[in-house]
């Protein structure tokens, strides 16, 4: 199995049989309005272009998982790509209606914690809580995914979430071989962070039974945590050896 990190939360899981795109934000730089104006510099998003090899990787995509509907997880260009290529979409039952209205081909919807057959294996929708305190309500519903494919390592896409009992349950009971974690510590102009603070990222990495794949970094104006800061914190806690912090366009072989 190979996981390609394209940008922010957009990644591609490639096996011999299937190529699964997750959360396609595929637009050019500066095509999305700033997510914060006062707390951090009001730069338009994404801050960086897609890597040059993304077209080649995307040309192989067979399925798409969408965790939630925020524009940094599915933007207009992502929708066009999915429509144009009639890519089958898997999502939360709560997002089916809106994605279908946008002309996407939703072939499977998931409820939280209910396993379903998926590409010869199984998939489970995992609850995700997008922020600390009241801000999580404003952010709406989010779904992570636990994926088991035949003869492959198991993958947990935790998505945009803080550390919760559900996250802990996946790590300790389902014991994924690979766990992705959003590390940008995003914040809006109001409220607490929308993603894990550093102490919770470290807790996640420590508890993960296998490898950790860190993303959601250095691509959006409301995500202050840098790869370098994350690397330093993981290193100080002896967690760097189990964690990949890929640059855009890099792939990790598992």
Description:
The protein is of the alpha/beta class and 254 residues long. It has helices at residues 54-58, 76-84, 96-101, 135-139, 165-174, 198-207, 227-236, and strands at 2-7, 10-14, 19-22, 63-66, 88-92, 105-110, 116-118, 121-128, 142-148, 155-157, 178-182, 211-215, 243-244, 251-253. The model has no long low-confidence stretch (mean pLDDT 97). Strand 4, helix 2 and strand 5 form a beta-alpha-beta unit. The protein has a 7-stranded mixed β-sheet.
What can be said about this structure in brief?
This protein has 254 residues and is an alpha/beta fold. The chain is built from 7 helices and 14 strands.
Overall average pLDDT? 97
Query: What overall geometry do the principal axes of the alpha carbons give?
Result: globular
Number of strands: 14
Helix content: 10-25%
What structural category characterises the helix and strand content?
alpha/beta
Q: Uncertain segments of ≥5 residues (pLDDT<50)?
A: none
- How would a textbook summarize the main sheet? 7 strands, mixed
Instruction: Specify the number of helices.
Output: 7
Distance between the termini: 5 Å
User: Mind telling me the C-alpha Rg?
Assistant: 17 Å
Listing every helix as H and every strand as E from the N terminus to the C terminus, the arrangement reads EEEHEHEHEEEHEEHEHEHEE
Strand residue percentage: 25-35%
Q: How are the strands of the largest sheet arranged?
A: 6-5-4-3-2-1-14
């Amino acid at each position: 199995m190979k996981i390609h990190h394209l940008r922010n939360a957009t990644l591609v899981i490639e096996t011999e049989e299937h190529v699964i795109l997750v959360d396609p934000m595929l637009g050019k730089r500066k095509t999305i309005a700033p997510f914060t104006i006062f707390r951090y510099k009001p730069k338009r998003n994404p801050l960086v272009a897609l890597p040059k090899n993304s077209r080649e990787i995307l040309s192989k995509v067979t399925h798409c998982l969408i965790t939630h509907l925020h524009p940094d997880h599915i933007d207009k260009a992502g929708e066009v790509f999915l429509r144009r290529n009639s890519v089958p979409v898997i999502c939360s039952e709560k997002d089916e209606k809106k994605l279908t209205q946008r002309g996407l081909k939703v072939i499977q919807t998931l409820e939280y914690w209910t396993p379903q057959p998926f590409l010869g294996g199984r998939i489970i929708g995992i609850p995700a809580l997008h922020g600390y305190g009241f801000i999580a309500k404003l952010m709406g519903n989010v779904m992570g995914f636990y994926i088991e494919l035949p003869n492959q390592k198991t993958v947990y896409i935790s998505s945009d979430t803080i550390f919760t009992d559900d996250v802990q349950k996946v790590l300790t009971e389902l014991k994924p071989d690979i766990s992705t974690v959003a590390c940008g510590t995003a914040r809006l102009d109001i409220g607490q962070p929308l993603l894990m603070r550093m102490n919770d990222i470290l807790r996640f990495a420590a508890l993960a039974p296998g490898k950790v794949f860190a993303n959601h970094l250095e691509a959006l104006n409301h995500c202050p945590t840098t790869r370098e800061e994350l690397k330093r914190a993981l290193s100080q806690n002896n967690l760097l050896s189990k964690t990949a912090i890929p640059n855009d366009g890099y792939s990790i072989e598992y």
